[in-house]
Amino acid sequence: MGSRDVLRANDERFADVAAGLTPDEWAAPSLCTEWSNREVLGHLVVGCSHPVGTFLGALVLHRNFDCANTATAQEAARDRSVEALLTDFRAVSARPEGVGRYFPARLLLGDHITHELDILFAVGREPDIPPHLLNAVLDTQVAFPNPFVPAYRNSQGLRLVAADTGWCHGNVGPTVEGTAAELISVLGNRPKVLPRLRGAGAEILADRLLSRQTRTAG
């Protein structure tokens, strides 16, 4: 199965999971700063379909990638029901347009799974994502720098172990152990499940998240 086929299959799985959330859960804040869970879904629709020129226009207008990203996600979700957004997401995942056609599938897989965790962990739901997909996301995250996800920087000098899937990274350094989903979320600078992580490296990783969030806030 090619990487695009893997991405589409995962998106269908996520859409089925997301269809079971309640209205209150969709309205709740996500782990993504400033976005509700419904707005995260709007972002996923935008990410698979937004015309490149339209997003560049938003970038010029807001003069900041994060602000432009937030504005487009909020706009996509503002006047659409969750049901309509899920229908849109299924459609644009099956046939991506705009930026969704050009962004590498392996990076989109990481983005979509990270945002699924943003939604589920925020409302106290435990994810049930196939282990091979979680491992694939972790492999991509720690392999090279990504300007949108700080996992590569956060993982430096640490030995990472996913106790549930058998994935590991690094032969030396303090150990950080958790589930694969917890590692994906924390390496992506989401501190929600930091208390679940174990090992001598967990405190180091927590310090990295705190320092980067402080610099961003400043």
From TrEMBL:
<feature type="domain" description="Mycothiol-dependent maleylpyruvate isomerase metal-binding">
    <location>
        <begin position="7"/>
        <end position="94"/>
    </location>
</feature>
<dbReference type="InterPro" id="IPR024344">
    <property type="entry name" value="MDMPI_metal-binding"/>
</dbReference>
<dbReference type="InterPro" id="IPR034660">
    <property type="entry name" value="DinB/YfiT-like"/>
</dbReference>
<dbReference type="Pfam" id="PF11716">
    <property type="entry name" value="MDMPI_N"/>
</dbReference>
<dbReference type="GO" id="GO:0046872">
    <property type="term" value="F:metal ion binding"/>
</dbReference>
<protein>
    <recommendedName>
        <fullName>Mycothiol-dependent maleylpyruvate isomerase metal-binding domain-containing protein</fullName>
    </recommendedName>
</protein>
<dbReference type="InterPro" id="IPR017517">
    <property type="entry name" value="Maleyloyr_isom"/>
</dbReference>
